[in-house]
Amino acid sequence: MRQSRASIKINPDPIGKNKINPYLFGHFVEDIRDHMDAMLAYPLSDMDFESIDNTYRGLSGSWRPYTNGKSTRYALEPAAAHHSGHSQMIRVFSSDGGYAGVRQAIAVEQDREGYRMALYARASIEIKYVVAEIADKNSGEVLGSTRIDLDSHNWKHYESRLTVERDCELAEFRVYVPSEHEPWLDHVSTGMLWLDHVSLLPSDSQGIVRKEVMDKTMDLNAGMMRLAGNYISAYHWRQAIGPVYERPCVVNEAWGGWTNKYFGTDEFLTFCRELKVEPLICVNDGSGTPQEAAEWVEYCNGDADTPMGKLRAAHGHAEPYGVKYWEIGNEVWGPWQVGHCSAEEFAERYLRFAQAMKAADPEIVLLACGHTAMEWNKTLLDRAAEQMDYLTLHLYHGYNRFGMNEQTPKDERYKAMVSYPEWTRETLHHLREMFGSDERYAHMKVAVTEYNTMYYPNTMRKGLPNEHTLEAAVANAANLNEFIRNRDLIEIGSFSDLVNGWLGGCIRVGDYFADQFRGKSRGWSGKSLTVYGTPTYYVMQMYANRDIAYVVESHTECGSFQVNSPVSAAPKLDDLPNLDVVACQNANGDKLTIFLVNRSLENTVADVQLGGFAAEGAAQLFELTADDYEAVNSVHTPNSVVPAARELSFADGQVTCEVKAHSVYVLEITR
Fold first, then answer.
1. How far, CA to CA in Å, does 446 sit from each of 51, 387, 428, 431, 479?
2. Is the pLDDT score of 479 beyond 80?
3. Which pTM was predicted?
4. pLDDT exceeding 90 applies to what percent of the chain?
5. How deeply is 182 buried, as exposed, middle or buried, from its count of CB atoms within 10 A (0-12, 13-18, 19+)?
6. How far is CA 305 from the centre of its chain?
7. Which strand (E) or helix (H) includes residue 295?
8. d(CA 51, CA 56)
9. What residue stretches are annotated with the Alpha-L-arabinofuranosidase C-terminal domain (predicted)?
10. Which residue in 361, 359, 355, 228 sits closest to 284, CA to CA?
């Protein structure tokens, strides 16, 4: 591979204005596809028997019969009072002399403290107890078992612990009336068992979040966590508060399936508190109303003597959460969005929502749905600028905008993808001009509440892993550099998504929805519980955990590349610097941090002149690299692309380092 030379000159004095906001390195959760299934710790699905019996007559969704009785009958019946979904009825014939219940395939880890089992059940008086167990499907070995005594003919909540002796990828959970159960006297009669809810939680879960996901998210030092996405435009927050049994099962109108009722407002805000990050909530302005949004604000922020604050306190949260940041409108300009409308209509809608929400809490900060199409923004600002604090952007970058597809030579696609910051810069340039055109707009800031690489047409998952490659990480890192350069304008960023989900969820759980495995059934790899980070995860971790406060001047002399597009691209793309560099200083002025992204396809020796910041010593170099820019992490090789750190000695105020092709670096010098 060829090697070139580059010079980077740092001028640490004076430091730039405008501090870098830690919210710039935020993340984003959405109830989309398997995001919640992957994020939450429950191994069971259809826990409330909410699905219909498409596969087995009389059995809900993922549940299967577990019986050796020739006469056992199953039926879905109405749920218990105030409960959602269905109840599962199992009719047991004593003359069969067998066992009867339901089972579900799951994967489990060793848990000697015991999975926390919750059961909501009732039974005819002849049935005195049921058994719950987890077994190895292949060997039949029972890995853990517990007996639940049913002491009432009426619906009742039961709890137990189910210890598991070892990991098992191909396990089966069962709850059933055992054959050893004492038979009832009339041998032609039947006993009936009804189940309304069954759930398991591992003992190490963080609330209801998977421990490994919580640990990885903690390491991201996110700053801010956004609750939003397409689903929010048809989401009614009151359906996911209070006792979980009583929360309704609601269709996810944006993405299909069921909206996750277990991760509601209180669970999200508890998640944020445990992570020590600022929450950002997007309200439903699609099928929702200004009053509903205002009540959500009051539920989160109102004192316990307000109507919604009293409701929150009744649910066990007496103190207000103090949610400061609220977003009105998620991609309202898109025809796929519930509540899609024109800019004029949205401006009027925004004002109604803003007025109602500010009446509930005058101290909140409001974000309004912006667009890369400047006509939308101009209309919105003209009508509502005084009532908004931030304009939002969603900046997804894909090679479709270049007229490219999977048939385009991959090196040309690579160059197009790593031009991400140039596109962001172009959009921000137009916004700067707009904000500067009228004093009414002078206070406006930008929140990029969704961004990522988008390998269209791979959004339909064509079996390509692009969204999780080192290439994607290089593009996202260069884009983060552009965010930092524009820290006076951009104060909030939300990487899309946090876990699995739609595009490139930076934390990956299991082997089901990741692009390179789509189409295979869950658990095919034998590693369905593996939790790992993508290369972009490590970019986000490297950036967010640096001690930075201000940008300082830097000048880079290096080679360049161009993007050869068959269509007219918006930014000028014929002389792009190989190295994308931004330099920062911490608040104390004793640490210099240089973010250096080598976008080129050649190794480069970079001479970094420190401009008097330090004369000699040892620098820390963090490196994210691989031999191939299409390298990925997977359940098989979760650590193929991970950062490495090493020390570099330097003298005469200059650090020399080799930066490999298509790689991301962070150089730290402390004086």
1. 42, 15, 9, 9, 15
2. yes
3. 0.96
4. 85
5. exposed
6. 34
7. helix 290-301
8. 11
9. 449-663
10. 228
